[in-house]
Every structure is written in structure tokens, then in C-alpha cells.
């Protein structure tokens, strides 16, 4: 199933609807484990006549159960885990003179861009897998064992806003020790809607259902991964509190919100002015990278998302007919965050437990093995790493 995928779904959507549909009808003794990404829950409703931004989390989970899934986990759980790992990685790089600026790594379209066009910046990428990659790894290498199952008997089906996630699922780095692809199938939000329609499930009238635990618990910080600026805001909520031992003055960090192509902000990190940037859409990313190469600006931490607005604008989301659908989806995401009692990743109780019982602590040997990854120069030309460039600039200030 791993062949060419266009990152933004413009050329073709290599659909696995038929394979997943067949598997749901004949499981052959396998357990079908679904995971759903943050941005899916504010967009799938559009396929069923509802408004963009309508929050359909419970109905989406109910529909997936109705289709025959055995377990439905939330990719938001691993978004929280990403923050624990990525926030710790950032603090570690700042403390120990690591490569800066550190770049987020959860958007596979962006990862492809770095590997193909900016390989000299590979050391700047966080080594964290995307939340999809982390969840699939946990299902195959942690959950299956706890359920007394072989990894190959837990089949992971991801529901993503994005066709580039199909490409990510095929990466050699994201295979089990036995060589199994950790994410077995990826369906876009639109493809899930198609599957629901094919099975005559009446989405709008479904009674809401909840995710399975322990990999279904999440926070407001996780859901904002769906919006441009969300990963940054979630990371700041946690990194600030861990570094300064007090909460950020406000959880709604507005300088990184909204549709501006390149957003910059400075956070007082107790003596250090932490400089951050958020960039979305390929053209803005190329602009940013050009300016970064020219030394026009430099930040400690930068979030990159290939799609306009972040994952809410992903190539696999419904093709909405209203002009303001992105604004509405964005509002829906922030509404979910506002409604959560727990809005910081490090306060996710299930995340705390998995560290206590399994990983030990962020950046542990085990978490490096199962939650982190590496990247390859995929150009002909291998350029020199920019490691150290940040510190030269920083020390000049
Ligand atoms: Fe996929 Fe777009 Fe989100 Fe990147 S920004 S992960 S390409 S939906």
C-alpha cells in the first residue's frame, strides 16, 4: 500500500477505504485499533450537512465503533506525549548548547520538505515522532503486549486530516523490530466519511461515544495541535511551567494564534527571552527558510505546518463550500480547548501514568526507542550542517 502520495492531496488520494472496509467485515482474528487526529473532529461534520467547526468528537467515535472497530484511541493522547518529549528536548538543547532553532516535527509535509530541500537543517528537527507515529508505536509495542496480543494482531487504522500521513506511515524508521509497519492504514477525514456513508451509518443522529483508555485521555493542549500555532502554544504551556515552576500568566497565548503566515513572539523565560516563531503554508515556509539562511532572524523554537491554518486545512479534510470554513474549524478547536478542565499536557493523568509505569521519564532510553526517530538527506547534494550557527548568532547579541 506504500506508494506515491501527494502531501496536500492535490494529485491523487491513494485510498485504502476498500482494504479497511474488507478488514472490518472480516477481521481474521485481528483487533482493529483506530486513532483519530485532532483536526478531524471539527471537520467531519461538514460531510454530513453540518457546519464547519461543529464539534463531532463523540459522534465520530460512535461511527467508528458502529463500523466495527474494536478500540478507538485518540491521537490527542500522543499529542500530549509529544509535548512532554519535545518540550524536554527544547529545554535540553537550550541548557546544553544543542542545535537551535529547534523545529517541530509533527507535520510530514514539512519533514519531506526539509529532507528534500533543506537537508542542512535536519539537525534542527526535533527527533520526536509525530503524534500518529507515537500512537502506532505504542499500540504495537506497548498496548498489544499488555493485551496479550502479538504486535501483528493489533491493526492500526489512522484517521488523519492529511494525505502526507499516508506517506509518513511508510517510512522505514517507523517499523517495529520485526519489520512491521506500525501504522497499517491511513484514511483521511473525507475517506472516513465515505466509509460511514457506504455503511449507511446515520452520523448526525448517533449517540456520542467516548475513546478507549488508557490511550484515549487527553487535554486542551493536545487538541490545539489542529490549528497553526497550536503545537507551539501547547509546548509553551508545559515548558514554561517545567522550567520556571509556575504556570504561564495566561494559557491562551494569542501571539501564536491566527492566520498570519509567519508569527513571531518572545516569551520571558525567567532570564532568557525565548524567541519563537510559527509558520504555516509552503510559500511562507520557503520565505522563512530563506530569511533564516540569510541570518535575517533567528528563534529558539519554530513550528512549521505545510497547510494553511495547520491541519484544519489539510488535504484530506472535507472540501468545504463556505468561504470561512477554516476560521470556523479554528474556532471549533479553541472551543474544545476552552471546555477542557485540564489544558496542559503534563497534567494528563494517563500520560503521567505511562511515564511512571513504562517510560520512566521524558527522553529516557525507552522513549527514545519508541517515541523518537531520525531523518535522512533525500537530495543528491549533501550540505554542511548548521549546528552551532545559532550559538554564534546568540553570542553576538
Ligand atoms: Fe498534514 Fe497539513 Fe497537518 Fe502537515 S499541516 S500534518 S501536511 S494536514
From TrEMBL:
Record bears the keyword Metal-binding: yes
Origin superkingdom: Eukaryota
Keyword Zinc in record: no
Keyword vocabulary terms for this entry: 4Fe-4S, Iron, Iron-sulfur, Metal-binding
Family named by the database record: Belongs to the NARF family.
Name of the molecule in the record: Iron hydrogenase
Species of origin: Anaeramoeba flamelloides
Shown segment, full-protein numbering: 216 to 612 of 612
